[in-house]
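Quick board copy: two proteins, each given as sequence then tokens.
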Amino acid sequence: MDKKTKILIPEIPGDWTARIRSGHLNIWNEALHGRPHRNGLPEVRMEPPEKGLYAERIGEAWYWVCGCERCLDRGKGYSYIVCHEHDRCITCHTHNTELPKNMTRWGKREGFRCGTCQDHLDATRKADALAKAAASGHSESDCSYTDAILCPHCASEQSSDDRYEDEAEAECGVCGGLYSLELHYSVSYTTMVAGKAPA
């Protein structure tokens, strides 16, 4: 794709400004819950003529322009949309159209990783973590009263997001081992003046 692509969209008036994107779909004056947009203008939905383009208002008109981060040479930043050429697994580089339709695609910052590559990566991470834990003599006692949640099987640190109470059973995100989780809280005290000071 040419990163300098700039194709006029004559169907969209230049004074329209309410446009959102949903993947490759561009929506002007989105109607919500069956009600027209607050500006009273009709809703229009359009897909670009080529994958990787999106609508941008330039001056007083709308154009299809390149939105693929790879084509724009912006490094490995998050790409909201990609062109046909760059729609590939970031690990094995197999094109999306060549992968089975029912295969999971794992969204990543640079694009997607196919299910086969993700399974291989997960298996390697699991084997490495278990080997490292065994080599260091890791045991369940290393997981008591720690600042982070550690897997008692492989010593991998687990996410503490949204964990506010004990869990009877949780699964390690690295090795898949099951463990229970107890949360421990420390007590602190605050005092404030509530009446006259002693004489």
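And the next:
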Amino acid sequence: MIWLYWRRSRLVVGMAGLALGSLAALVLIAGAVADAGNRPGSATPAAVRRAGAMQRGFTPPSAADPQVHRGLALMAAAVTACRTVSYRGVQIVAWSSAEGSSSYLLDVWHRSGEPELAEGDGDVDDRNSSSHTPGSAAGSGGAVGVLSISPGMLDLLRINYIIEYAGPGSSSDRPAQIVAVRRRDGTLAARYWLDRQTSLPLRREMFDRSGHRVSEGAFIDLELGDSSIGLAPVIQGQAWSTYIPLSQRQAPNSRPTAARLTGLHADGWPVPSRLAGNMVLAGVTRTATSSGQVVDASYSDGLSVVSVFMQHGELSGKLPGWHEEQVGGLPVYSTVPGQLADEGLAWSAHGVVFTVIADAPPEAVTEVVAQLPHERHDGLWTRVARGFKRIGSWFDPFD
């Protein structure tokens, strides 16, 4: 009798289960649509239309354009100056967004032919005092000071942006020449002030797609020449070196090739070849610490720089001095709440602790964080939908 009752009621119960599953699915879809509209960095239809119209109405200039030719020549000279000019100075770095603003000072030292060194003085407004460990530009695969430009960064700038001469100016009480960096749709991405005498970058501004300035870095004090350098900071901690996978130790190569990437993955390091926003893997270095090996994968689009630090392990409990928050709907720890640019973000996933430090606009940081691995825990409605799906399979009337 029980079996007969089950067979007779199977269709009715199955239809009820499928109906409830459909209802849950509709709720999930509606929630996903709402989340997509509210997600940081997501574009509204009006914004998409504006960006499309701007792209259709803008014709990128050719490399033969005099302003482009001069802009490229000035930036090439700036790359050379960053390697050959000796200097000591203080840089101020400021970031602003809808969530707030932050600023800090950097003491920088550079001797011709050597890596730049930098040491932080903490927050300018004394709201969040923090110090930056002195480090080497060569150590992390990128520039320590926000104004330095490497040959690789210039190559990426030429690929991803339009570089134009924008006229004369001044910064740090020094005559300068201004170079504009534009996106392929014509929107202004950045401006550089290059010292007229030495070609050294004196100031940089970065803008989001709506034209708002999101970052500024500039020398507020600068002395040129070997005699002005004085006593530079001592690099603390273990030295960073190029990461060479175990399978490739017999043929070391500093470039992050496809084979090198495969070796990194085999060694347990989930290093992507690219990140959102045309961020290309520029280099992978490593160092040894008391808690294990740390890998630094550095990415750049020529303008922004993102460092992704990885270490095997798990984060447990709260991190002293860090704050819990959500970035793009994902739980992370941050050094300064609400500040994504040039601040630390940390989380663990699949046996790896990730720490992201970025000299990039907040929307770019959000995209990068979302692309990296996370422990994605199912929400209530996801579990409900999965349960209803299983119920539907049990009561399939066509079985």
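Board note added afterward: The longest strand covers residues 213-224.
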